[in-house]
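Q: A small favour: would you put together sequence and structure tokens for a protein?
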Amino acid sequence: MATAGVARPLRALVDAGDLHVALALFRADAVGMPADVVASMRETPQWQEDLALAHTTAYDAAIVEAGLPEVSVPTRFVLGGASPARMADGVRRYAAPLGAEVRVLDGQQHFAQRTAPRELAAVIVS
């Protein structure tokens, strides 16, 4: 999960319009991806798609750094069953103190909204 203090440099990069660097920093320092993996991701078409959301990286990191607030409504986390263990551990770690339900989409990874949108929608509204 997020390295303490990564939200502030991410905000500066986003504000300066340096979205490529912000996305790389987010993936390396906030998500914990190895540098070589981040470098190889830059060469994929997915990188260009992900740049459209790079402006949200500072916000995402700030939320994680601040900790999740108290939630008083039923909450559900959705986890791709084929997601890396560190992501699954993170979802369960955040869900536990909230008493949140964790639903697993078998065979899916982190981007089920792209790979299985109908299945994800069914879990969200059920």
Notes: The chain has a mean pLDDT of 89.
